[in-house]
Design goal:
Blueprint lengths: L19 E6 L22 E7 L1 H4 L11 E4 L5 E3 L7 E5 L3 E5 L7
Antiparallel strand pairs: 1-2, 1-5, 2-3, 3-6, 4-5
Family: Belongs to the GroES chaperonin family.
InterPro entries: Chaperonin_GroES, Chaperonin_GroES_sf, GroES-like_sf
Keywords: Chaperone
Length: 109
Amino acid sequence: MAKKKVASSTFEYVEPIGDRVLVRKDEPKRETRGGIALPDAAEIPTITGRIVTISAAVENDEELPLRQYDKILFHPKNAIPVDLEHDNQLFVVPVEDIVAVFRRNAPEE
C-alpha cells in the first residue's frame, strides 16, 4: 500500500467574509475599579475587543464606521471562536452584533 503524503499546513491569517470582522477579545476583568480582587468564579464577562481584520465588504461600506484596530463592544451570542492561537481570544463577529465603537474624539460633521 502506498502511503498518502499529508501536507501539514499552519494557518497564519484569517480573513472574514461578508459583513464580519475578526476581533481579539479583551482579557476578562479580575478586579473591580475599586481594586477588589475577584475570584475566578465571579469573573465579569468581557464583550469588548479590538478589530484585528475587517472583511472587504465592511471596508468598502462607507456607512459602517469600523476600521482595523478599533475597540468595540459586541454581543457574544453569534461570535464564532477561531482556534488559531493558544489562548483562543479570536472571534469572527457579525457586524450586526457590534453595538458600539469606542472613540477618543467625537466624529467631525
